[in-house]
Specification:
nine-stranded mixed beta sheet; alpha/beta; 16 helices; single chain
Length: 411
């Protein structure tokens, strides 16, 4: 397998303005608003540098030609290097920025402070990875992917690059959130050789089985084969739900008397919102970076799982399409028993997208699961792993304690 690796040295000039937040301006990805938090207008590397950390941006190409951006914080502010590599993979419709938006309480910064060499992936089709060696990003061919291709192509390319750059094969600690866990389980079931680069996989809100999901994404499941409906309401290629479907998907959120602006951000509409735990000081930054983009097919792949009783399986093209694609009338299921990498699962009982019942089932189907951790806060939800007021205490510190069992001497 050949990968094309391109190193991009980014030395941006960072300009920070401290203005009052305008109540008439709603931040959106690519559209800035006056804010007391300058991170609203900065990318992942710029945010890390503004907080005093060294940061790098690397471009890699996958075997099927997608050009991805990896972000790196190679160590603490003090300048030490050579720590064990940690790879952070974001969730659905998100980006590497999610790991750095919470200031000193961001997981990426906490890991760097502890001496780790922190790498952050960006899945194909998001803000930082929207390019291809041959295809136009406006073409249907470009957007013809789901989290299956992310697991089959994106992760092998990224993890080989990290392994080769750090010269630490087999030492990567992988931390995924939401779709970042789905990608890994696809990767590890189908590419056991490449998975040997990973020493431990930690799953925050793992999404594999979807039998008991509470997310409004379940409302999309009846329409997964209705092309006309999909084109009208979700967008054929890039996931761009129109205002009517956003209102429909956000109904459950608005029932909780949560601000309409928050509910109609597709991340919160699909993943839920915990009013008591969410750090609202981060809201302008979060809304300016998320949603970061993906394909409609990626979202539909999850909806298909719900439609077919939560089965963890490849994309369903219908009996005729499946026969052409797979040689069978139904799509193959992923064989979790193939995974040999030690896994550690973290879940919350109020998670809309990652049901605790489904997570417990997952733990029972992994041959090398080393732990199952329940977040000790009943209201904790899917996005609280990133933006929660107490995420550092409730999730990151317990996670890092487990990671120490798989960590070599740093320097």
């Amino acid at each position: 397998m050949r990968f094309v690796y391109l190193l991009v040295l980014c030395l941006p000039l960072i300009r920070c303005e401290h203005d009052e937040i305008s109540t008439n301006c709603i931040p959106q990805p690519g559209v800035s608003c006056p804010s007391g938090n300058p991170d609203v207008d900065l990318d992942t590397v710029q945010i890390a540098r503004r907080h005093g950390y060294p940061a790098e941006s690397h471009l890699i190409a996958t075997e099927d030609g997608y050009i991805l951006t990896l972000h790196r914080i190679p160590g603490p502010k003090s300048g030490e290097r050579g720590g064990q590599p940690v790879f952070l993979q974001h969730g659905l419709l998100s980006s590497s920025t999610d790991w750095v938006v919470a200031g000193n309480a961001s997981l990426a910064f906490m890991l760097a402070d502890a001496g780790y060499d922190v790498w952050m992936g960006n899945a194909r089709g998001n803000t930082y990875s929207k390019a291809h060696m041959n295809l136009s990003i406006s073409s249907a061919q470009y957007w013809n992917f789901t989290w299956h291709e992310m697991g089959v192509y994106d992760l092998p390319a990224a993890l080989y690059f990290v392994s080769n750059t750090t010269n630490k094969p087999g030492e990567i600690i992988y931390v995924g959130h939401s779709m970042g866990t789905t990608m890994f389980f696809v990767f590890a079931t189908l590419n056991r050789q490449a998975a040997k680069n990973v020493k431990l996989m930690a799953a925050l809100a793992p999404v594999v089985y979807m039998t008991h999901v509470k997310s409004p994404i379940r409302y999309l499941s009846p329409f997964t084969t209705d092309f006309e409906w999909l084109a009208k309401y979700l967008g054929v290629n890039q996931f761009l739900p129109n205002n009517k479907i956003l209102k429909f998907l956000s109904y459950d959120c608005e029932l909780l008397n949560i601000d309409k602006t928050i509910c109609e951000d597709i991340i919160f509409a699909l993943c839920g919102f915990d009013k008591t735990e969410f750090n609202e000081d981060l809201l302008p930054v979060v809304l300016s970076h998320d949603p970061a983009g993906s394909s409609t097919k990626t979202v539909l792949h999850y909806a298909q799982e719900i439609k077919y009783d939560g089965k963890f399986q490849q994309y369903d093209y219908g009996p005729a399409g499946n026969k052409i694609k797979y040689g069978t009338l139904t799509p193959p299921q992923y064989k979790l028993l193939n995974i040999k990498v030690p896994t550690y699962l973290m879940y919350a009982v109020n998670d809309w997208l990652s049901s605790y019942i489904d997570v417990i089932r997952l733990s029972q189907n992994l041959t090398n699961n080393v732990g199952l951790y329940r977040v000790p806060l009943e209201a904790f939800n899917h996005v609280d792993y990133l933006f929660g007021k107490h995420a550092a205490t409730l999730v990151y510190k317990p996670l890092m304690k487990v990671m120490m069992n798989y960590t070599e001497d740093m320097y």
